[in-house]
Amino acid sequence: MIDRSKYKLLFDVDSPSDIRDFDVKKLKLLCTEIREYMVDVISQVGGHFGGGLGSVELTVALHKVFNTPYDKIVWDTGHQAYPHKIITGRRDQLFTIRQLNGLSGFLKRSESEYDEFGAGHASTSISAALGIATASTIKQEKRRVIAVIGDGAMTGGMAYEAMNNSGILKNDLIVVLNDNNMSIAPNVWQISNYFTEMISHPEYNKFKGAIWDLTGKLDEFGDRLRRVAARLETGIKAVITPGMLFEALGFRYFGPVNGHNIGQLVKLFEHVKPLNGPILVHTLTQKGKGYKPAEGHVQKLHASTPFDKVTGKAVKKPGGAPSYTSVFGDTLVEIVKSNENVVGITAAMPDGTGLDTLNKEVPDKYFDVGIAEEHAVTFAAGLATQGIIPVVAIYSSFLQRGFDQIVHDVALQNLHVVFVLDRAGLVGADGPTHHGTFDLTYLRMIPNMVIMAPKDESELRDMIYTAVQYKQGPIALRYPRGSALGVEISDHFTELEIGKAEILKEGEDIALLAVGSMVEYSNEAAEKLDIEGIHCEVINMRFIKPLDEQMLDYVASKFDKIVTLEENTLHGGFGSGVLEYFSDKGIHKNILRIGIPDKFIDHGTQAELHKMIKIDPNGIVDKVKVFCGNIGKFLEVTE
């Protein structure tokens, strides 16, 4: 697995305390070995990669200078923290990352005392760190709190809301902007480095404090000197640093500094460590640093399946069906080329949502708003008021961040915005921060909203077309992560009738009402149950809202036992909608709901998680057999 003999330092580092007496030479060697170890491990098991390679020196410097875990580090985004995991006692577990019962790919409080705040989504670190710093003030604890924000997270508005509040509260807080050219990227130049070192030096700050105290004793003349001195310092900073925005928000700004110069980082952190109030340290790093294939393809190796260590190319799996994501991307390009009013919007995930294809083919109809889901939704609403049809492609779990905007800015005004939710259901290795298990629930409660879920890639294409053609208000569709089913795709589109289901298999014993990914599972389960003597009718409901009431009336007239199936939390989802309909009509039936239980599901492969919570075909069979009781005619048939 790993040749430990080639590592001279890494396997002697079991906690940050082991590096506190390292000199710069040893720290440089440790950084080299951390990178090599990451390449060795992640090339075999896969995982987030580029961001962590870029944060190695920053991680090592922080843990050397600050007394972690008493001093608190909050990471954002969480996937840049693999080096943090390596030097905080989880080095040997890195082989288990993102696997069932293994390490999380993100920060997780229950995993380590060094993971002070969970981080799977972006732009949260400054808010959380400010809360921790404020708590320290309340409790009169003398600890340092550091927020490390980077890899595009500064494009999220929440970061600036937190900075504004920090400037008002003025609690001791250090924000490290890990700028890897995926957010803001000013030039590095020597004068700036010199100035940063000068203004962070203890003697400079002591001199500045003395001048301030002296001028404060000189009445009106002293006030004038203070104003001149303040303007002089501000003017110098404005000319040779890009930090005036942060200064305006109440932060003392230091940088930009080379984020791969471990000696300079240690010196800077030692200088700012005793300073009071909000501090911002701006470091410039390179995503994928130290591994040529990652340096050349920062998006490609942002996260990766197992890959060849020498070339960086992914280990190819046997050919199969296209992904749902790629089918969506290709379909949208086809529609945009035929309808000049359709545009695509992503929140910093062009590759992940399939909109990279639109960017290449029709770039003037493509918009990336950064990690700002709230803005994406309201931006789309504005477009819709002018007759543009915005297709907003956002992961199911990320769209949760724009819930208020969906309600207030889109649905309340009944605007035609198309929401396309990738990664619906259990996503696998990324775990609970990324599972899309709530979208049917949080969308179904919103008036004017239409919600669809395709059973396969062919129906996905038709649903995208239907959503674009729909003119009566907001409409959403959701689909799972991963490969589609491999069904034949038509070269033309069919507009679906809103709210109409279809019967896929007739049966006389029990009805399986399924949506989305659970349709294929229901078909497989029905075949197995046929052998058991339980003959199921399988219905692809297609629409979660509005429900096909005519179909539900038919099902109620034919079956006493009804099963609903969804890859969504059972609370408030599709099955709840069916129960509500029957209750409102006074229809009393035996109903079993199969879906995601009321708990957060950990990470693992999708197949492992489906099996674990018994929503895979075998799990459905077991649940249906128990539901039927295996008595009466069912037992007689199987004997």
User: What characteristic shape results from the CA principal axes?
Assistant: globular
What is the straight-line distance between the termini?
52 Å
Number of strands: 19
Neighbour order of strands in the largest sheet: 9-8-10-11-13-12-17
CATH superfamily of the largest domain: Thiamin diphosphate (ThDP)-binding fold, Pyr/PP domains
**The CATH top-level class label of the largest domain:** Alpha Beta
Could you give a short account of the major beta sheet? 7 strands, mixed
Gross CATH architecture of the largest domain: 3-Layer(aba) Sandwich
Total tally of structural domains: 3
Uncertain runs: 183-192, 631-639
Mean pLDDT equals 89
Number of helical runs? 26
Instruction: Tell me the helix content.
Output: 40-55%
Note the beta-strand portion.
Answer: 15-25%
Structural class: alpha/beta
What integer value in Å does the Rg equal?
A: 28 Å
CATH topology of the largest domain: Rossmann fold
Structure overview:
- With 639 residues, the chain is α/β, with parallel strands linked by helices.
- It has 3 domains: 242 residues, Rossmann fold (3-Layer(aba) Sandwich), CATH 3.40.50; 155 residues, Thiamin diphosphate (ThDP)-binding fold, Pyr/PP domains (Rossmann fold, 3-Layer(aba) Sandwich), CATH 3.40.50; 137 residues, Rossmann fold, CATH 3.40.50.920.
- Strand 18, helix 23 and strand 19 form a beta-alpha-beta unit.
- Helix 8 packs antiparallel against helix 9.
